[in-house]
Backbone:
């Protein structure tokens, strides 16, 4: 039965239609926020997927260009692979939803969000987050929701809820907060060095609004919700688990995992599994397929008990202690900049490349306000970084997400185009991984940018803190600089990046049903302490400020301004003039509609030569100006001299030499380089030159 529900949300109407479309999905919500329309569906398989030990959740966010009245480019004229924004949005939807499904649920679940119409003032990303939560909550899929999400901006120090397109452009904060009825379950932020106390205020202002949205969703569930279906519980057999604990013993498991060397720990666990396989091959072969999951569960309980009750970390560190740190620059001699950051067994090498503004990345998506990206950060996570073998198939969702997080963290400190007229690309290559490579890539990128001579405003560092919780809200331990094991078996990965001045990026992943305000505040202030230490004690001694000169291998870019009305003269018919300048000088030239011209090249003389050509082309000619040009045509009455690409003037035969000559060829041949002085324009409007009135030496 078709039902419609509405509420006012941040000054706009949110409407949810249930039963109007997609009736065969387990749950479907036809979402309208202003004129933005998103269809959110939740579907689940009837049976669990065999042979897996994880919950197979798939989240999709599909951008259709018809939503903004565009036809896709390319030969096929249809949407291709998911855009970066689609991938990032899918991850943001996934993170608050995943912890609320049963931990032993193995049925395939797909949350699909089809963006069908976009009102630029009503975020389709936010609409999809709400839609996924509603579609799942009203479905028969087991789910401990609902959740709600709010986006926050900040303009002139004042918070803005679910900002419009114009408000986003003026905002110093882009924060998304998802909540359950009691707690915050997801935080994602990009900020222009926002102080910690203001960030906390914004987080909980969003959390408060989320409670009103959850009340609205509860009403929908009360009227339209289906009973949750029963499912096959895919947990480790209790008899098997008890036997493993008795056979291996908690003391032996603690000894196996209590080491700061990842390889030693993995070898110890392999030995335990080998013993168990040998034991159950004779004793109970049916238990062999469950060994991996049972050992994982045993490890997890051991590590959590060590941390929470014994206050011992697997590598022996204190709860707030950071692993050994190192910073280096100039690792690669011919790149424009390089920096390497090492934290324990996590090591990241970032390479900076500078280019002309024409190399800015073009974006063809639903957001009409953002059409290009001048700074690009890419993150690569090869299998060798964790001692595994796997062919490279390009970046996955995790790599795209980590790259975007580092990019978001660094954008606030980058110089403007006017200050530094370059496109900038940083690539973080993960050399070794054992926890929080995304934050290591932020530190390495800062080092690399400074080594490349990019005049960033301040250094940026990132750090991650973890969490292990007990049975009550006040029973918990916060861990600074979590390694992989603490991430796998812990409850939180809270990543915060920033400068001395404030926060530039946050990403929070958790595995439990939310965090209290006390935990969030302590986590944020713990990251500030660690960040300050990294900036002052590790990064600053390596390089304290950006270099004043670029690498000899980096392009040199010089800017000039011309009259916008003269742009056509510089470009020429079908680009003939500008291409001739480029061919003669070897430079790159970018021209914007306002008359800003960027000339780039490795050789300073070539840049100056190209700029001089542009000056000549765009200058109104005056009598008495002297030029150097090439003879390009000889006639009976004189010669034509090209003094800049696409620009030529005529030297009459009487103006070639102080001596009387009968034929132009007596003095000139094609290709001669000569000096000429401007005499003005002749009766036909052509520029008239004289050679005899200027010294040819």
Residues:
């Amino acid at each position: 039965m078709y039902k419609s529900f509405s509420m006012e949300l941040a000054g706009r109407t949110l409407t949810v239609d249930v039963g109007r479309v997609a009736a065969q999905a387990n749950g479907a919500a036809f979402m309208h926020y202003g004129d933005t329309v998103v269809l959110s569906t939740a579907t689940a398989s009837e049976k669990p997927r065999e042979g897996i030990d994880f919950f197979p959740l798939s989240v999709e966010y599909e951008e259709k260009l018809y939503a903004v009245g565009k036809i896709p480019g390319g030969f096929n004229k249809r949407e291709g692979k998911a855009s970066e924004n689609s991938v990032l949005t899918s991850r943001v939807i996934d993170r608050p939803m995943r912890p609320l499904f049963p931990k032993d649920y193995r049925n395939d679940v797909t949350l699909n969000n089809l963006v069908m119409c976009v009102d630029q003032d009503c975020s389709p990303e936010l609409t999809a987050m709400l839609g996924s939560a509603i579609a799942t909550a009203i479905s028969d899929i087991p789910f401990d929701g609902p959740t709600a999400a709010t986006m926050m901006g900040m303009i002139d120090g004042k918070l803005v809820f679910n900002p419009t397109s114009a408000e986003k452009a003026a905002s110093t904060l882009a924060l998304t907060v998802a909540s359950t009825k009691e707690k915050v379950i997801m935080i994602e932020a990009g900020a222009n060095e926002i102080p910690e106390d203001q960030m906390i205020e914004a987080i909980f202002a969003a959390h408060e609004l989320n409670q009103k949205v959850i009340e609205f969703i509860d009403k929908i569930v009360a009227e339209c919700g289906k009973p949750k279906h029963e499912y096959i519980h895919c947990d480790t057999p209790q008899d098997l688990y008890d036997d493993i604990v008795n056979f291996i013993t908690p003391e032996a498991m603690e000894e196996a995992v209590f080491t700061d060397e990842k390889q030693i720990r993995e070898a110890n666990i392999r030995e335990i599994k080998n013993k168990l396989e040998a034991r159950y091959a004779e004793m109970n072969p049916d238990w062999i397929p469950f060994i991996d999951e049972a050992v994982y569960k045993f490890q997890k309980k051991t590590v959590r008990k060590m941390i929470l009750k014994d206050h011992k970390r697997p590598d022996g560190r204190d709860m707030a202690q950071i692993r050994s740190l190192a910073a280096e620059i100039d690792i690669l001699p011919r790149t424009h900049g390089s920096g390497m950051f090492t934290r324990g067994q996590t090591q990241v090498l970032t390479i900076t490349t500078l280019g002309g503004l024409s190399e800015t990345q073009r974006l063809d998506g639903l957001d009409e306000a953002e059409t290009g990206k001048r700074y690009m950060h890419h993150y690569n996570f090869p299998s060798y970084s964790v001692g595994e073998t796997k062919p490279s198939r390009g970046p996955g969702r995790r790599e795209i997400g980590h790259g975007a997080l580092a990019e978001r963290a660094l954008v606030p400190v980058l110089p403007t185009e006017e200050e530094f007229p370059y496109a900038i690309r940083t690539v973080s290559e993960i050399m070794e991984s054992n926890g929080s490579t995304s934050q290591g890539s932020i530190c390495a990128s800062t080092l690399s940018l400074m080594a490349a001579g990019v005049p960033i405003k301040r250094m940026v560092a990132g750090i991650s803190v973890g969490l292990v919780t007990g049975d009550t809200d006040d029973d918990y331990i916060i861990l600074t600089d979590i390694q992989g094991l603490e991430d796998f078996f812990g409850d939180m990965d809270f990543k915060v990046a920033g400068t001395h001045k404030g926060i530039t990026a946050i990403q929070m992943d958790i595995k439990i049903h939310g965090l209290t305000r006390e935990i969030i505040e302590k986590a944020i202030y713990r990251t500030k302490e660690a960040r300050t230490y990294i900036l002052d004690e590790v990064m600053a001694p390596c390089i304290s400020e950006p270099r004043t000169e670029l690498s000899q291998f980096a392009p040199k870019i010089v800017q000039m301004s011309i009259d916008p009305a003269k742009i056509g003269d510089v470009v020429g018919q079908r680009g003939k003039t500008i291409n001739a300048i480029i061919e003669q000088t070897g430079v790159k030239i970018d021209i914007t509609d306002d008359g800003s011209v960027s000339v780039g090249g490795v050789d300073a003389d070539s840049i100056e030569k190209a700029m001089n050509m542009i000056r000549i082309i765009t200058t109104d000619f005056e009598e008495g100006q002297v030029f150097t040009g090439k003879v390009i045509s000889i006639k009976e009455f004189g010669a034509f001299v090209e003094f800049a690409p696409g620009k030529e003037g005529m030297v009459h035969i009487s103006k070639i030499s102080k001596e009387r000559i009968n034929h132009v060829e007596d003095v000139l041949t094609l290709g001669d380089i000569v000096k000429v002085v401007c005499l003005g324009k002749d009766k036909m409007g052509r520029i008239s030159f004289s050679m005899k009135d200027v010294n040819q030496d």
